[in-house]
Amino acid sequence: MTQGAGTFGDLGPVVSRHAVDHRKRWMNAGWALLIAVPSGWLGVWGWSAAGEGTAGSNKAIGLLLGLALGAFAVAAAQVTGALRGERGEYFEVRRGGLVHGSQRGAAGWSWNSVTSLHVEGDAVNRLATRLGNGFRIVIAFDDGTRLRTDGLTERAADLGRALLTQCPHVALEPRVPWYGRAGGWLLAGAAACTAAIAAMLAYIADHPDKEKRVSAGPGMTMVQSTEAGISEAGYFFLAMGMLVCAVTAIVLVIAYVRGRAYR
């Protein structure tokens, strides 16, 4: 059932209301970019200035670039979540069902309309709690609607407990995670990442630096110079591409191994 906000009398009185604070997502994205931009700039500058460099300097540069990539990923995830949400978004737990609304309007469903429910709480540190990753709720209804929320929802744990209490018919159903359903596609993705790394290495091997001799004039000594096969920017993007592919391949293999427990 979908109705205007405040017209859900058939669902009974409000038991609890849980607002979703998307402002925290924008704040988290801002802090992440504040870390990513300077660390990324320093990493790129150090990589271009150090040349061969020492083992210690290379580790420091790698740490800066890794920190920048991680912070950019956090910022992207937080911005995506903020754009996906709606202003004034909230959840209302009622005696007879659930209401989800925002400034655009509201919709309500009875408890027997819930066809799937997943509540997961695995906050292990303050960072996960700050980013909202420490709690996750996914609800599906018989009309095809699917709602998601996380730890940035006000009293998210109370909302999760209320849903589990009101929906025992689906709360205990086993949920197979995405890596349990993907099967061999995970290994195919890892193989594709490995092939991409091999292709980039082959490209580097096919474009070596070339020595170039230029005559300075009759009776003059030949001038010898080195022409770069790949620019410094090209090396940087190839190195970052190989790093991303390597990490992705490792993650996919680990996901495949973990997913075998569900088959």
Distance, first to last CA: 37 Å
Order of helices and strands: EHHEEEEHEEHHHHEEH
What coarse outline follows from CA principal-axis ratios? elongated
* Structural class designation: alpha+beta
The low-pLDDT segments are: 1-6
Q: Strands of the largest sheet, in order across it?
A: 1-2-3-4
**Any idea what the radius of gyration is?**
27 Å
User: Major β-sheet, in short?
Assistant: 4 strands, antiparallel
Helical element count?
8
Looking at how many chains there are and whether they match, the oligomeric state comes to single chain
Mean pLDDT: 79
Number of E-type strands: 9
Question: Helix proportion of residues, in percent?
Answer: 40-55%
In short:
The protein has about 260 residues and is α+β, with helices and mostly antiparallel strands. The protein is built from eight helices and nine strands.
Task: Report what the structure shows.
- The protein is an alpha+beta fold.
- It has helices at residues 23-50, 55-84, 126-131, 156-166, 168-171, 178-182, 185-205, 232-259, and strands at 14-19, 90-94, 97-102, 105-110, 114-121, 135-141, 146-150, 210-214, 223-227.
- The strands form three sheets. It has a four-stranded antiparallel beta sheet with strand order 1-2-3-4, with helices on one face. It has a three-stranded antiparallel beta sheet with strand order 5-6-7, covered by helices on one side.
- Helix 1 packs antiparallel against helix 2 and helix 7 runs antiparallel to helix 8.
- The longest helix has 30 residues, at 55-84.
- It is elongated.
- The chain starts with 13 loop residues before the first strand and ends with a helix.
- The model is unreliable at 1-6 (pLDDT under 50).
